[in-house]
Fold this sequence. Notes:
7-stranded mixed sheet
Amino acid sequence: MRLRKVKLAEEIISGSNYILKDILNYKGKYNNLFGNNNPIHVELGMGKGNFIINNALRYPNINFIGIEKYDSVLVRAIQKLEGVNLPNLRLIQMDAVDINNVFSNEIDCLYLNFSDPWPKKRHINRRLTSEVFLKKYDSLFKKSKRIVMKTDNRHFFEFSLKSLINHGYKINNLSLNLYDDDLSLNIPTEYEMKFVAKGMIIYYIEVIK
């Protein structure tokens, strides 16, 4: 899918107080950045920010970091934050492949929401639940490892489930149709709302290690 260019996106992003610059300087020091020892939750591929922003609003005692590669998408999240004060939220523009260069033994939970399924076999290592990425994630977590994932793609869900289990994760929670279950704690992404409106099934898994 081609992303639309957003006028002045780079300027809007660089001028936001929520955006972290010189991110390599924060590796291993994110609690100092937030000024507390609260848990740190990271969303990899945050899109337009509905999920991460509403989590930060709902859980003020958790620090949230949203990561997004594309400026045309990230700028939409920043626009939603105009006039909003969330000291427990920061955003990073970067490629997911570099994530282990940015964090070191300091996060408590990783969210993978509607990641690109990369359906072609030759692209398997680009999937965010491939063995390549799961090895990168190992160095991110503080103690126990927790990954929460949502997707509309059944094949990607099955691949991810197998990959996570093979990497030593245990299933803590699983749904083969999230919207048939209790949604009291669910915060949807923009993609999720569109998919649900079309009657599509949402798959959910939470694993720990």
